[in-house]
Each structure stands twice: as structure tokens, then as C-alpha cells.
Amino acid sequence: MAIATVSPTAQERPGAITFKGNPLTLLGPKVTVGASAPDFSVVAQDLSPVTLSSSRGKTRLISVVPSLDTPVCDAQTRRFNQEASTLANVEILTISMDLPFAQKRWCGAAGVNQVKVLSDHRDASFGRAYGVLIKELRLLARAIFIVDGSDILRHVEYVPELSAHPNYDAALAATRQLASAR
User: Fold this and answer.
1) Of 63, 88, 103, 167, whose Cβ has the fewest other Cβ atoms within 10 Å?
2) Tens digit of pLDDT for each residue in 65-118?
């Protein structure tokens, strides 16, 4: 079975993260706090396109996971789903390379219905724009991005070890601070 490859012309960041201590290459730029959030096009579970501008005006917490069918990704998505009801005027997006049909199945089985779970499987638009596309695996690296209603990045966390959890408390505190300032 051949693994899909990614264009060699993409910006490469070798060793940007690890998986069980082994270095991996991320493709795309490393985005930073204060910068404009790049637009992207991902796919909802009903196959409709979703872009950053689809939720302009709201605070967005974007939770990025390699695959929902793994323990840390499962826990991360469930945690943000649980917190969603405590966050007013905030949209939580979980993005992975999982197919929309697999995402829908997983959400149903896990009872996840407060976050939008989206797929970047078509052309890795999100992964390339936010610098989380893993060259060797064609999966997304674990990360958290918080974008304000004007599409400015207000919190960025690239989790250095793929199998580690993000800093939930820092992401939620930043999200609450933005939401309360509205």
C-alpha cells in the first residue's frame, strides 16, 4: 500500500514535532499569535465545505487531532465537547484527516454533538495553511489555535510530541478571556 505524498515544494519544518521521540516534518508555515488567521476549506460530515469565514464574528477554538480513533485524540475531542456548553459565542472546530463518514460514526458513538468535527482529507488546505500537515504520515499534528471574531490568531499551541495532550487549561483560559471581552 502506497502512502500519499505531499508536494516537495511545500515549506518544510524538519523535526518540528516528534512521535514517540522520532522526529517528523511539518509542512506549511508556523503561524503566530497576532497574525491574521489563514483561510482554509475543510469538509463537514454532510460533505459541505466549511471555511474560516463561515464563523466570522465568533471566537473560534480550533482543536487539531491526527485521528479521532486514537486515545489522545478521542480524549481531546471529548474534553472540548464537554467544555463547549460553558463557552458563550464560541465555536469549537475539531479538524482531522479522518474521512467525514468515519467522523460521523465516531461522533455518534462518542456522543460528541457540541463541536463541529471537520475533515481536511481532500487537499490538506487547513494542514498546509496552519503548518500542521505531517509530511511522513499525511496526518495533522496535534495543535490548538484560537481565532478571534476578526480572524486574528490569539493563542497558538503546536504540541511538540504527537502522542501528548495539549494544554487544555491554557486554551480554555484564552478562549474564555476572548469571549468575555466581546
Assistant:
1) 88
2) 999 999 999 999 999 999 999 998 899 999 999 999 999 999 999 999 999 999
Concerning whether 73 is annotated as a catalytic residue, the answer is yes
Return d(Cα 95, Cα 42) in angstroms, integer.
8
pTM: 0.93
| CB distance 49 to 43 below 8 Å | yes
How many angstroms separate the CA atoms of 16 and 99, rounded? 25
List, in order of start, the domains of the chain with CATH numbers: 12-180 (3.40.30.10)
Backbone angles phi, psi at 157, to 5 degrees: -135, 115
| Alpha-carbon Rg for the chain in angstroms | 15
Nearest to 142, CA basis, from 100, 91, 79, 89? 79
Annotated catalytic residue: which of 61, 73, 87, 129?
73
Q: What is the mean pLDDT of residues 23-50?
A: 97
Question: Residue 179 has what pLDDT?
Answer: 85
